[in-house]
């Protein structure tokens, strides 16, 4: 294991996502290293596309240069799978993860396909369009993380994908205005038409009340995916289940708070306090233990199905 790659990946997660960094500490050492390295690659790709540094300083990018940056990410991913030496620490990290856990190449390429939707200004006409985006940028990350934790059974992978979908639906609800300000609208155009919000006016203050109804709709939509995801905890190692249950609680609470704030949801960024994080850490441990005795229910048929 290259210490430089681990150090780079750890720095990326400590700056890019303090919540995930805290939850990752619950993993055993091998799993934590792989999870942190996979996060570093995902964070790097996101930053390259958005012109950010570790998730900060996002600007509305030039789509032409975005295509070139995306093509480079795809090329480096292909080369990582080909076993070529990787100079970039983010791709060196990816290479170690995919070799260690046999991550199918289709997964990181699908993740990059989500960024392609951003680069090309994809228009989300229907809920299925939005869910496809959620799958690519977050559901497939859930699939890869599940493999890092040792999961291989398709039902368990389905639940991991569901958690990624729930997380991304929550993210969209929290960041509707911030995203719209840089020209990205992930809400279905059909939904916007129903409440009379023009697609180029989503960020305007006069639409906050109507926007709040759509954010609440997203939060409600995420709920069955959160419930489905909790059914997969039993099939993960206990420490991994604890980590995932903690993240589950933190993200779900963000959605609850967005819905509770209504039209004021975008006056300040919604987050969870240290006290709440501690509460979810303790609750996650209880849930992880309880999952050992959980009788798993079938996954609901009406939930979005990931591509096979």
Automatic annotation (TrEMBL):
UniProt entry tagged with the keyword Transferase: yes
Family matches, as Gene3D superfamilies: Farnesyl Diphosphate Synthase
Names of required cofactors: ATP
Pathway it works in: Carotenoid biosynthesis; phytoene biosynthesis
Matching SUPFAM superfamilies: Terpenoid synthases
Gene Ontology biological-process annotations: carotenoid biosynthetic process
Keyword annotations of the record: Carotenoid biosynthesis, Transferase
TM stretches of this protein: none
Organism domain of life: Bacteria
Keyword Transferase set for record: yes
GO molecular function: geranylgeranyl diphosphate synthase activity; squalene synthase [NAD(P)H] activity
Family named by the database record: Belongs to the phytoene/squalene synthase family.
Family matches, as PANTHER family: BIFUNCTIONAL LYCOPENE CYCLASE/PHYTOENE SYNTHASE
Protein name per the record: Phytoene synthase
